[in-house]
Amino acid sequence: MSRARTARRIAAGAAYGGGGLGLVGAAAVGVVLAEMQFAKRTVGTGLADPPRADGLYGSEFGGPEMSPGPLRLGMLGDSTAAGLGVRRARQTPAALLASGLAAVAERPVLLRNVALSGAMSDDLDRQVGLLLDGDEPPPDVCVIMIGANDVTRRMPPTQSVRLLTSAVRRLRLAGSEVVVGTCPDLGTIEPVYQPLRWLARRVSRQLAAAQTIGVVALGARTVSMGDLLGPEFAANPREMFGPDSYHPSAEGYATAAMAVLPTLCAALSLWPESDRLDVSRNEDMLPVAKAASAAASQAGTEITAARGPWVLLKHRRRRRVPGTDPDPDPASAGAGAGSAETSVS
To answer: Could you tell me which residues are beta bridge partners of residue 314?
Structure first.
């Protein structure tokens, strides 16, 4: 059974109930996940809590009192969204995205990160509530990174997709644009050895494709996290992964932000490129299941709805975007925060 067909089954099961594991049998999945749980005994141990990066970024473009006011960015998800493993607020993916968005928009960005280390998709409802259930306006745009813990803790993929789509639906109904970083390719994690690595890759890519099918139908965009993210991680695992060989390093998080930022800006109609296809970059308009399957195998690939069951598969160009304060106070991002320079793709 093809990955596209399996992803369709998972997404359909999420929408209508039921569904199974698709191509991978339950016994095989149990074996690989037991191995991954063994490998994860050292994952995250000894790591401090992620630094808090909430606050105003791009303050040089004006204060929160200036009209039309800052853009509001919400960050949701698991430890990758939270930035587990880095020491400074400016090194977290949320801070990098806020800095880059402020530079592109030439407008302040107010960041609120409600991601939680260890979170599964069943925590998204709580996280969405933190962003929406209050007196503050809803975020203009939200980024969700979720899925890895769903795989390693054996959440049924139909349930995982159902919970994600429910969160995306709430955010979209509140008026927020949404970008989802899909489940990373767990076959690249060093503590997982062959022959089980290929099975971890298959399970996580199936979930990533199903996530795309589910959320694109709601008007969200997805970016493939792939192998966290692409050839840089495969070629330089010692630099791109942190000390636990599972979570990204500061360099790894910057690479992740490079992949997500163009789509984040495009969701707000800020990116200088349109959604027209560039055939020289192997961009195409495809049925959603086929595009989702292709994106799961190629990190950094964006999927966005086009018309009917067809979607755009895009590879946005990398650009260098100036940041703001090169060394903000991690305890208070309110004075403006970010890296001195952020490369985006």
So the answer is: 302
DSSP 8-class letter at 123: G
Dist. CA 28–CA 199, nearest whole Å: 8
Looking at per-residue pLDDT, the higher value among 241 and 311 belongs to 311
Instruction: Judge contact between 127 and 85, C-beta under 8 A.
Output: no
Q: What is the DSSP string of 67-93?
A: TT--EEEEEEESHHHHTTT-SSGGGSH
The confidence score (pLDDT) of residue 16 equals 52
Residues 6+ away with beta carbon under 8 Å from 270: 101, 104, 105
Q: How confident is the model at residue 68 (pLDDT cuts 50, 70, 90)?
A: confident
CA distance 281 to 235: 22
> CB–CB of 27/226 below 8 Å?
no
SS3 222: strand
CB atoms within 10 A of CB 135: 4
Of 70-74, 200-204, 256-260, 282-286, minimum mean pLDDT range:
200-204
Which residues form the catalytic set? 79, 244, 247
Q: Which amino acid is at 244?
A: D
Mean pLDDT, all residues of the chain: 77
Q: Map tokens 């390693």 to a residue.
A: 152
**pLDDT attached to residue 164:** 97
**Which H/E stretch holds residue 265?**
helix 250-267
Q: Which residue has the higher pLDDT, 129 or 192?
A: 129
Nearest to 70 by CA among 262, 336, 253: 336
Name the phi and psi angles at 150, rounded to 5. -60, -40
Residue 231 has a CB neighbour count (10 Å cut-off) of 10
151/40: higher pLDDT: 151
